[in-house]
């Protein structure tokens, strides 16, 4: 695991800084005003230098969040469980080329002034490449830059990909009082730019570390590709949109793979459990390729209720009425048809009639 030093970079403009520029206490009022103006300009320049870093999400430290005062670091296990089943998500469920699966997990432990990704904000280039292609190189470089420039990042963590929609992946990581938050991403495969993840979960509670945290995960759209379905071809979003959560009614397009208008909320597509463990000095070596061992749950999990999401039948619009056929002097009959776009599943609404007929007056009687 890559780590940065525990040191912190601080920039303070205090009275001593001002006096360093003006040791003479008898300085004129004009000199004093000039020095104050210079100090203020220098302060804003330093803030600007810290904030401007391509791909690094540096934000002001929130003042309404309690600071972590834990005296010792803590080590956690992370267990990611996919819940992406055909029963829970029957619409356009990918079964081949490729089937439903999860990418590698990439995460980071960090301080309050850093975001790997953030809802309703624009994705960085690294987040874009990971959400679209599962490529983590640029994202890793962005994390390293944040650690080197503003000391916001402590460690990088990863877990191997899951070659199935319901598999499990595990890893471990360490947190400190200065870096008590953890964020991660896992790409939904296949998808245009969809992922699940956590943004800045704080594992510290005052002077103590939380024993366990369990979160249900829902899909997000990175805002960089405009595809509607799992297998949509690449269709770049111009201009780039913000990261948004995908729901059963948003995007409100019937072609969307997560569009279930009968549902108030989507069922969770994954789950993550963070558990505090006894700290050891062992160096953890993580596999970087998918393995057969993480295809299925371990068997130690509590059995959960199976979710069956109803999928209503979808049909096309009616075709034009056909020719009116009949004998001269008698009423004729004409037909129109429609076809099934999506078959029903899990007790969803059945398909309506696919053919209609009506009486008509023959145009060319026999």
UniProtKB/TrEMBL annotation:
User: In which compartments does the protein localize?
Assistant: Secreted, Extracellular space, Extracellular matrix
Q: Entry's PROSITE patterns?
A: SPONDIN (PS51020), TSP1 (PS50092)
Q: Name one Pfam family in it.
A: Spond_N
What InterPro entries does the entry give?
Spondin/Thrombospondin_T1 (IPR051418), Spondin_N (IPR009465), Spondin_N_sf (IPR038678), TSP1_rpt (IPR000884), TSP1_rpt_sf (IPR036383), TSP1_spondin_dom (IPR044004)
* Entry keywords, A to Z: Calcium, Cell adhesion, Disulfide bond, Extracellular matrix, Glycoprotein, Immunity, Innate immunity, Metal-binding, Secreted, Signal
Q: Which domain of life is it from?
A: Eukaryota
Which is a Gene Ontology cellular component entry for this protein?
A: extracellular matrix
UniProt record, GO biological process: cell adhesion; innate immune response
- Residue span, Spondin domain: 64-254
Single GO molecular-function term?
Answer: metal ion binding
Identify the main location: secreted
Q: Which PANTHER family match?
A: SPON2B PROTEIN, SPONDIN
* Quaternary state and interactors: Monomer. Interacts with integrin.
Question: Can you name this protein?
Answer: Spondin-2
UniProt source species? Oryzias javanicus (Javanese ricefish)
Q: What is the lineage of its organism?
A: Eukaryota, Metazoa, Chordata, Craniata, Vertebrata
């Amino acid at each position: 695991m890559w780590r940065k030093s525990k040191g912190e970079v601080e920039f303070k403009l205090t009275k001593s800084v001002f006096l360093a520029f003006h040791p003479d206490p008898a300085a004129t009022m004009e000199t004093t005003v000039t020095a104050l103006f210079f100090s203020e300009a220098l302060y804003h320049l330093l803030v600007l230098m810290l904030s401007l870093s391509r791909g690094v999400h540096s934000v002001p430290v929130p003042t309404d969040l309690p600071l972590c005062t834990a005296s010792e670091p803590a080590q956690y296990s992370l267990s990611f469980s996919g819940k992406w089943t055909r029963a829970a998500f029957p619409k356009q469920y990918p079964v081949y080329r490729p089937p439903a699966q999860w990418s590698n997990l990439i995460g980071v432990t960090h301080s309050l002034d850093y975001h790997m990704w953030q809802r309703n904000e624009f994705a960085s280039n690294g987040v874009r490449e990971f959400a679209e292609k599962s490529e983590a190189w640029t994202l890793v470089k962005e994390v390293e830059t944040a650690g080197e420039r503003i000391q916001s990042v402590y460690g990088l963590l990863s877990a191997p990909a899951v070659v199935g929609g319901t598999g499990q992946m595990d890893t471990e990581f360490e947190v400190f009082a200065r870096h008590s938050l953890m964020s991660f991403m896992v790409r939904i495969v296949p998808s245009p730019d969809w992922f699940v993840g956590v943004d800045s979960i704080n594992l510290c509670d005052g002077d103590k570390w939380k024993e366990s945290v369990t979160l249900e995960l829902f899909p997000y759209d990175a805002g960089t590709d405009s595809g509607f379905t799992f297998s949509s071809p690449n269709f770049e979003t111009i201009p780039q949109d913000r990261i948004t959560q995908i729901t059963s009614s948003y995007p409100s397009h019937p072609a969307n793979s997560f569009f279930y208008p009968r549902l108030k909320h989507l069922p969770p597509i994954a789950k993550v459990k963070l558990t505090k463990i006894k700290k050891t000095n062992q160096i953890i070596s993580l596999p970087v390729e998918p393995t057969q061992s993480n295809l299925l749950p371990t068997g130690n999990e509590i059995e959960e209720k199976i979710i069956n999401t109803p999928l209503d039948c979808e049909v096309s619009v009616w075709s034009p009425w056909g020719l009116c056929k009949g004998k001269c002097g008698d009423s004729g009959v004409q037909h129109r048809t429609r076809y099934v776009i999506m078959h029903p599943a899990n007790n969803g609404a059945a398909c309506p009639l696919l053919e209609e007929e009506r009486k008509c007056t023959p145009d060319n009687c026999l």
